[in-house]
Amino acid sequence: MDTKTKRGLRQSLNRRRFLKLGTGIGAGLALGGTGLAGEAAARGKHAKGDEFMEIMHTRRSAREFEPTQIPDDHLQMILDAARTAPTAGNQQPWKFLVVRDEKMIDRIRERALEAQLGYRIKEEMGDEAKATARRQAEDYVAQCTSAKTFVVVLTDNESNYPSYNWHDGPLAAGYLILAARSLGYGSVYYTDSISETIIKDVFDMDDRYKVVCTIPLGIPKEWPAKPDKKDLADLVAYDSL
Amino acid sequence: MDTKTKRGLRQSLNRRRFLKLGTGIGAGLALGGTGLAGEAAARGKHAKGDEFMEIMHTRRSAREFEPTQIPDDHLQMILDAARTAPTAGNQQPWKFLVVRDEKMIDRIRERALEAQLGYRIKEEMGDEAKATARRQAEDYVAQCTSAKTFVVVLTDNESNYPSYNWHDGPLAAGYLILAARSLGYGSVYYTDSISETIIKDVFDMDDRYKVVCTIPLGIPKEWPAKPDKKDLADLVAYDSL
Question: DSSP class of residue B207?
Answer without folding.
Answer: T
